[in-house]
Amino acid sequence: MNSHKWHWRRTSLRYKLIASVLFMTLPLVGMLLYNNYYAINVVRGQVADSYKNMLKLYMNQTDVSLNDIDSYMSTVANGNDLLSLSQAATDTDYYSAKIYLYNKLNRDSSLYNSLSSFFVYTEHRQEYMEVPKIDQSTLEEKEKIATYIIDLIHSGQFPQGISAKRWQHVRIGMNDYLIDIVHSGDAYLGGWIQTDLLLEPLETLQIGEGGEVLLVDVQGKPLTKTDLVSEYNVDLQKNLLNYYISGTTKKFLVVGAPSNKGNFSLVALIPDQYILAKLPYLQWIVWLITIAGFLLIPLGLYSMRMSILVPLYRVLRTMKKVREGDWSSRVELSNTSGEFQLIGGAFNAMMTEVERLRTNVYEEQLNKQKEELQRLQLQVNPHFFLNTLNIVYNLAKVKNYELILEMSMSLIHYFRFMFRSNTSFVQLKEEIEHTKNYLRIQSLRFPSQLTWNIDVPVYLSDVPIPPLVIQSFVENSIKHAVTMDEPINISVQIEFMDEEDDSKIKISIKDTGFGFNDQVLEELQAGRSIENERGEHTGIWNVERRLKLLYGETVSIQYANVKESGGAVVEIIVPINPGMEEKR
Questions:
Q1: Cα angle: 459, vertex 460, 463; to 5 degrees
Q2: DSSP assignment of 456-484, as one string?
Q3: CB < 8 Å & 24+ apart, contacts of 107-111
């Protein structure tokens, strides 16, 4: 069912019109969006290349400065200045070498702009000497730095020997530093640089409001003071050889340049809005066209719907009503184009003529159907008449006047119902009462061979059903199941069935006899007519014929044999409201 609906929608005119409009407009809108996206990426790439070249230039200058400091300390360590401090035999020699080295380092430190301080440590005397370039640190900071450097020297966890990346990052207190250490004997010479001072020359770099330049280690952790990374969750662990966009509530273009003298990189965080601010006009035009396209598509589809689809749906809706049986429906012709007015006028004229012809044919068929129903019902009536006369005759022979009175009263009620049964429907309670009268009559005929029970909910008593339906199947059970050998029981049960499309009742007639013959059961289940030995149609066929005429395809009749008892069972399902079925 769903596949059928989907196929109809795909082949409908509305689907084809919408698909055609979208096929023409969506590629254009997609191309505009792609061009906008491509332009943004081109600008980002150009800005990233520009900043990357600038960062590389400054990083190279910083590496040259770090390399000069490293070369200077290596020269001092390989000469006699540091060695004489390590090998001094007397205190006089030691302090003379120490004073000389201090003056030398103090004088030469002015040659290195990025350097914060030199330091000297002699292990055998456990003495630490600091040679600051500019004394800006507090006494507490100096003590923390000295303690950290002494512990670092004692641990030996610093690059030694020939190493390209000798400068290592350390965090002392709340500050970050780069430290390089060389030694000669048990005398150590080193220098440290405060990382924040390395970035002072880049403060004039224009990276937009809210941007920042910082140093990061190989794990992506900042080596300088910053709040952007944690506040906007900027990822600094990706490969800095290529630029990328990162950040949560605020996006940043991340560009970096690694150092050749230490395990750190120089990174610039450029606000993405600062980059795109250079494309306001182009972005405005693209978004304006895109929004206008998405607004005009529904307007165009609405216009097509009102001028083409709505008039067409009027015709289709009227045709659907006609197909469902509403032959009085006509196409509304107001506010439509001339072509649809012509189609609607022709359709209305045709339906007027068809309705006139159909009324004539319907009346003729209705009269014929009523005649056939009456004929079928009258065909049932004589079938029982001879049996009842035979019963009364037998009772009169045995002079059982009390039973004759009971039989006569049952026959009066029975034939009174039969004489008015030429109607199409009776109430269920009337049909049940008639069936009970019939069963009383048969119980008198078979006093010890027949028992019966009828179960009907009270709320179903007024449901209309065709007359003689239940009684005909009960009569058939008695005719074929009751013998003088074994007693049988006949049960009638009425149930309510609430289904999605309509409410129905199920009538079940069961007996404990021998059941249907296999050949007869096969014929009944196949819906074929059953004839008796004289070539006449049976009562079952008459009932089926009447039900088909009254309910059409909505009626269901099932025949079976009960496996447990071996008896026959007939189940009839009919709608509760027969008027709806006649309308259909």
A1: 135
A2: --GGGTT-EE-TTHHHHHHHHHHHHH--S
A3: 108/72, 109/133, 111/68, 111/72
Backbone angles phi, psi at 2, to 5 degrees: -65, -40
Tens of pLDDT, residues 519-559: 888 888 887 776 655 544 466 777 887 788 778 788 889 98
What was the pLDDT predicted at 537?
46
- Please name the residues in contact with 165: beta carbons below 8 A apart, sequence gap of 6 or more: 159, 259, 260, 261, 262, 263
The CA-based dihedral angle spanning residues 420, 423, 424, 426, taken in that order and rounded to the nearest 10 degrees = -40
Quote the tokens at residue 11: 């082949």
**265 vs 163: CA distance, rounded Å:** 18
Contact predicate 119/192, CB 8 Å? yes
pTM: 0.47
Q: Which residues pair with 453 in a beta bridge?
A: 491
- Measured distance CA(525)–CA(517) in Å, rounded: 12
3-state class (DSSP) for residue 331: coil
CA angle 363/364/366 to nearest 5° reads 65
Sign of the dihedral defined by the CA atoms of residues 433, 434, 440, 442, in that order: negative
Place of tokens 């199409």: 424
Cβ-contact 277, 304 below 8 angstroms: no
